[in-house]
TrEMBL record:
It comes from the Eukaryota. This is MaoC-like domain-containing protein. One of its GO terms (cellular component) is mitochondrion. Residues 41-133 form the MaoC-like domain. GO terms for biological process: fatty acid biosynthetic process. PANTHER family: HYDROXYACYL-THIOESTER DEHYDRATASE TYPE 2, MITOCHONDRIAL (PTHR43437:SF3), HYDROXYACYL-THIOESTER DEHYDRATASE TYPE 2, MITOCHONDRIAL-RELATED (PTHR43437). CDD domains: R_hydratase. GO terms for molecular function: (3R)-hydroxyacyl-[acyl-carrier-protein] dehydratase activity.
Length: 173
């Protein structure tokens, strides 16, 4: 099934893009097309300003995000980054690689807190691609790690993509 999908995708795409001539004498890098198993990642360190701006937009002013003493009394090391702010990495990753993506759904499971200053890596992995009316319905496994190893969020997302061509690709296979 996987090789059949790849052949279909390559067939559709090879007939869709006209050949272009490169006048600079260099060969442009080949475009990457998303395939099942591809993983896209981005890293972010959340700041006090990020938490403050998110709080203003979401109207979530829980003291766990603003008062270190309150957070420590609740059993945390320090102030927390909003879980939904951390999860916002997923649509950001998808949209930055696949312009025009329509985010359809997201499930989230919070595993561990994220604190201000933690380096968080968001990761989306393509698990299923289905063509529907000249668009693609793509299912992703979604995960965030802090300090490169501790799982803090996992879940699944579904997005509708206008094409499987990916931009700004730093795909990790």
């Amino acid at each position: 099934m996987l090789s059949r999908n790849r052949m279909l995708i390559r067939s559709l795409l090879s007939s869709s893009f006209p050949c272009t001539r490169n006048f600079l004498g260099t060969t442009p890098p080949p475009r990457k097309f998303l395939e099942t198993g591809d993983t896209l990642r981005q890293t972010r360190i959340f700041t006090n300003e990020d938490v403050t701006e998110y709080s203003k937009a979401s109207l979530d002013s829980n003291p766990l995000h603003f008062d270190s003493e309150f957070a420590r009394n609740a059993g945390f090391e320090d102030r927390l980054v909003h879980g939904m702010l951390v999860a916002s990495l997923f649509p950001r990753i998808i949209a930055s690689h696949c312009p025009g993506a329509i985010y359809v759904s997201q499930s989230l499971h919070y595993k561990s807190p994220v604190y201000l200053g933690d380096a968080v890596v968001g990761e989306v992995q393509v698990t299923n691609i289905r063509e529907n009316k000249s668009r693609y319905i793509v299912k992703f496994l979604t995960k965030c790690f802090k300090n490169d190893k501790l799982l803090v969020i996992d879940g699944e997302a579904v997005a509708i993509l206008p094409t499987l061509a990916a931009e700004k690709v730093n795909v990790v296979d």
